[in-house]
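Q&A log
Question type: sequence-to-structure
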Amino acid sequence: MIATVLWERELHQRGGASAFAVGPDCVVLHERRTRLVCLERVDGAVRWDVPLGTWPRGIVLAGDRVLVLPQTPYVLSCFDVRTGASLWSVPTPRWTGNLAVHSDTVVTGGWRGYTPMTGLDLADGSVRWTTPSAVTSVRTLAWAGGVLTGSGREAALLDPADGSDLARWRLPDPLAGPDAKTFVPVDAERVVAICEGSSLVTLGLDADDPTPLGSYDPFRAVGRIRGSVWMLRSGNGLLAVDPADGTSTWLVEEDRRIVADPLPCGDGVLVGDANGGIRLLGLDGRTVEGCSLPGRRLDALAAADDGGLFFAAKGTFGAFSLGSEARLSTTSAVGA
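Response status: OK
Response body:
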């Protein structure tokens, strides 16, 4: 297996600090501390480049629009993803965090209890509803006809149209902190919630009570891949569990720091490490093949819905592809 860099762009800031979103034909990312750029996926060419602000708390692609919530200035901005034209921009209270888009509604606020939660019309940014006072919410998630939120031992699915409850659950343990991913969707009816003590519980639309899955070694990132919920352990290594009962489906013991996110690839899982190594794992966690992106300190990997592969590294962002050594060697021989 050989990794080939298709294109790469200097960010002029640390790759891990660059929020980005991958769309069907473009990548939108933050760079140079205060710029928002849209790159063509095919070759990395700049589609547009606009001033934004510092360190976005969220970038969300919603059809032909992109929503961005920078830390400063205190505004929520909506751009045309095709041209970069500003469609609307609305002021937000200081310390506004959390950004989720469901259908035609944008939901913000509740981060660390600093601000109210507010629902805005995606078309023009007008306010549809807002809570009467500041509320506390973990990182929100658009899911199953609503927006998931929660704090402490409570989780709720809000109706994005008016902010009312569609469902509410009482949890066995408090939800994890405000900055990390808190909810991992399993399917249209189930979601896994991350609680304190590195514990996981499953919430179901038709279930009155959450289902505890278990407590695990401390982990620094979590997600879902090929039917399992994965956890990057705070030390090194990767654990995947069945979201139905919490049993381990596979385990990767590793002496190098694995970066988020593990990606589906063929019949296996692709993982990267901070030193630029990339490995294809079978669903039993065993290495099938390996390669590297030489000279790069990886911060993250990402994949598009159609299988396109991307990396954020120390100071750069780029796209890459994977090929077999045999096929590449044959191609080189023919070209010679």
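Response note: The chain has one helix and 32 strands.
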